[in-house]
Amino acid sequence: PPQPGPPQPGPPSRHLGGHYPSLPLGYQNAAPPPAAILTQTLVPVPLSQPLGGPGPAQLSPSLAAMSLQSSTPEALRVVNLLQERNLLPPIPIPPPTPCLQQDLQKINCNPEVFRSTLTSIPQTQSLLNKAKMPLGLLLHPFKDLSQLPVVTSSTIVRCRSCRTYINPFVSFLDQRRWKCNLCYRVNDVPEEFMYNPVSRSYGEPHKRPEVQNATIEFIAPSEYMLRPPQPAVYLFHSSTWSHNASLLDNIKLPGDSRTKIGFVTFDSTIHFYNLQEGLSQPQMLIVSDIDDIFLPTPDSLLVNLNECKELVQDLLKSLPTLFQKTMETQSALGSALQAAYKLLLPTGGRMSVFQTQLPNLGVGALQSREDPNQRASAKDVQHLSPATDFYKKLALDCSGQQVAVDLFLLSSQYCDLASLGCISRYSAGSVYYYPSYHHQHNPAQVECFQRDLKRYLTRKIGFEAVMRIRCSKGMSIHTFHGNFFVRSTDLLSLPNVNPDAGFAVQMSIEENLDDMQIVSFQAALLYTSSKGERRIRVHTLCLPVVNSLSDIFAGADVQAITGLLACMAVDRSATASLSDARDAMTNAAIDSLASYRQSVLSIQQPGLLAPACLRLFPLFILALLKQKAFRTGTSTRLDDRLFAMCQLKYQPLVYSMLMIHPALYRVDDLSDEGALNINERTVPQPRVLQLSVEKLSREAAFLMDAGTVMYLWVGRSCQPAFLTQVLGVSSYAAVPDNLHLLPELDTAESQRTRAFIGWLRDQRPFFPPLHVIRDESQLKPTFMQNMIEDRTESALSYYEFLLHLQQQISK
């Protein structure tokens, strides 16, 4: 690859807002003279050889001598963070590959579904304590998969002792006996398992699909059912239907001929809708005694969708007009939820709640707890915990009856998400939040809501689910993160499971793993499909056991560690305080780098040293400290902060990483060089840039992908070709204020830009709106707040943060 010269100082920062001082000059060229030596290590290492890496010639001189004596794996290459600046790889970071035999690694679980913070498991808890890194698993168990082997069998083979499902990491002693890879018990191979349905051969149990695939789905026989599988049941529950009803009209909900549907609306009273077959039009039934909720006609409020389709369509057409003129400002959400719970009690199902204000009447009524003057306070943030246990208690009742509650908050005012969020958190639902939602004045939010709702209504769903995570003997799970209720020590109750939900668990090592080369983890999810089939999806992950600190560090997965620490910090904010959570995250970086320095490095040298695999750890921790969930000193609405916390706990790792550390790309010079070809479309692949104003240029345009939102920043002197051929405007001044859709122009530049943004969006299940911003835009400060490496009035720059870490480590 061509060798770039020394890093150039960026443009003066005064054009970009005065309070972003560029880094100290000494730092800009602080790399040792042969700059090319350092920058070359950015060449992405191909996945097939994860631990190979640059030879000694490409390491900094002091290290070259070391690595000639012993070939250091790339993951352990020593990096002085104070000197090496361009640490961000030009492409998204792939997860590390565990050091396993080739044949085991080939069939190991996909890291997008199941990954560990440490890909090499320490032999003892004391070794883990010494490494000062958290041990845990991150899961995305019901992810939409393009390939999923499904097995129908009358006998599902499981260990008789620990109930582990047979999987690729068990060992066969002979044709008739297999040894469990979690508890080591020897089990008999049942007769039926001797026959391989794929090859239609007999006598090769080790070739069956259950033993060839780390992710597999079983269609379960009757002993996996406590009751006949429930039908798909959907209850829509809203304080406003003025603009949402039309969306439901032409969408096909997942289900079969038994699918049921119902509607409840509310203000200061509760309105039910009688949809009984034979009625000429839907009947609205009003219950005004909100303190003593009863169901006016219990049998005709939840109806079979196929049989009553026309009545349902009539209702959806008339709902928006029913409440158009209402002057009602009261919201009896708590009573309305109790009513909906009673309605779903006999079957279980999914409750979708659309709420536009703070509930202020009857049970579960809330008061505003936010003081707008305290939003930017550098002190501790109050009211991160619920104001009442009403919503949690109701959620636990719902969970016990297989009801999950999904909450859509569409509001421009404070809604107390800390309290309302409990209804979804403990019932395994999800929370969607659209701050400053307005159906006319905020078209980007409306588009986002409509696309999210469409995905929500049509995506796969599992009903009455439970998930259990097992691990090899000697290890134990102690804390779970996500939306669920823990029914027994290791059983998560999930009344609904959806393909966009992530989970995390923390683990400890209870007994020494001395005589083990490998350990395994298995997640089993038992659910009812929308077609009424009972199914079990099983994922098994295998990892090596090591007994040296350097091997533990070499296997560290920096993104998984960051994701797990974020979950732990959300918990700490609620149980202790936000400042405690912030300190704990900073200490995680200090402790692990101090442990590396003291116990792994053989030659002590000055600087802030990290192994290459953790080189981005301080950057990610700083990004968390500046993230909406945890930042202080920057004006942050309480609900915005709480929603960010919800997402960190609930989003699968690939999505939450973009919310923590957004990706920045230059997009005014996209080319086909290195582009991907996807479905006949050419998708450019610009490199990822560091999040610093230094990387911006007034002559260019940059796209920032922050996970749930995208910003396209257009420089004041941006080249005219980009303005005309991508934005369809004649000059910078003509860029409209709230542009959120790129025009479909018939130019190569427009097609490339739209293909790239479309490709980024297609990689996630939710819809990130796009905001085109100029220097004068209201959203410019939000864009700049994501420039994590720069200093703000209330937060350190990346370089200052590194100096702080170094100072703490050398104490």
**Structural class, judged by helices and strands?**
alpha+beta
Helical content stands at 25-40%
* Main sheet makeup: 8 strands, mixed
| Tally of strands | 33
Beginning-to-end CA distance, first to last residue: 41 Å
Radius of gyration: 28 Å
- Low-confidence spans: 1-69
Shape: globular
Domain Sec23/Sec24 trunk: 252-457
Protein name: SEC24 homolog A, COPII coat complex component
Family: Belongs to the SEC23/SEC24 family. SEC24 subfamily.
Region (Disordered): 1-27
Task: Describe the protein.
With 811 residues, this protein is an alpha+beta fold. It contains 22 helices and 33 strands. The chain is globular and about 80 Å long. Residues 1-69 have low confidence and may be disordered.
What's the helix and strand layout?
Layout: H1 25-28, H2 35-39, H3 61-69, E1 78-80, H4 102-106, E2 114-116, E3 121-122, H5 125-131, E4 136-139, E5 150-152, E6 171-174, E7 177-179, E8 186-188, E9 195-196, E10 201-202, E11 215-219, E12 233-238, H6 245-249, E13 260-266, E14 270-274, E15 283-287, E16 303-304, H7 309-322, H8 333-344, E17 349-355, H9 390-400, E18 403-411, H10 417-420, H11 422-425, E19 431-435, H12 443-458, E20 462-471, E21 475-481, E22 485-488, E23 491-497, E24 503-509, E25 518-529, E26 534-546, H13 549-554, H14 558-575, H15 578-599, E27 609-611, H16 617-625, H17 638-650, H18 653-660, E28 663-666, E29 676-678, E30 681-683, E31 701-705, E32 710-714, H19 720-727, H20 748-762, E33 770-773, H21 780-785, H22 798-809
Parallel strand pairs: 3-26, 5-11, 12-13, 12-17, 17-18, 18-19, 32-33
Antiparallel strand pairs: 1-27, 2-4, 4-24, 6-7, 7-8, 9-10, 11-26, 13-14, 13-16, 14-15, 20-23, 20-25, 21-24, 22-23, 25-26, 28-31, 29-30, 31-32
